Amino acid sequence: MVAASIGLAVLPDLAHLVPLLADGGGWHTLAGYITATPGHEPALPPLVAMLSHHLHCIGHSAVIAGWSRVRLWRWRRQWLIPLAGWWSHIVIDVFTHSADFYPVPVLYPFTQRGFDGPAWNTPGFQLANYAALVLTAIALWCTRRRGR
User: Fold this and answer.
1) Where are the transmembrane segments (predicted)?
2) What whole-number distance in Å separates Cα of residue 11 and Cα of residue 93?
């Protein structure tokens, strides 16, 4: 269950990278895409750009995630917990992506507009993010240590 939750949590950011690898540019194109700043993304062939964009939209859509949850509820109820990983990714990304840099289209396919939040790749936000991760790790370490 934990592995499935983690897998579904990272899937929205990995799925839309597949067309970039299939393009022929390989790791060079992928690295340029991942490390790009707003307005400096590498040029992509139109088909690759369109596929990548729509896979990004699908992976970050609450509409698609909600539809998937309802479908899986009827088929395999044990997938409801792992789907929380996907939902956590959507919720986090909605508030950590600016309109200039991979906005999160929560209501895709009805609209491709996203919420304009602070960009995750700005220095101040990254500092706060890593500080929160370190504090969480320390809290978990202290909690486990007390349990022993």
Assistant:
1) 79-99, 119-142
2) 13
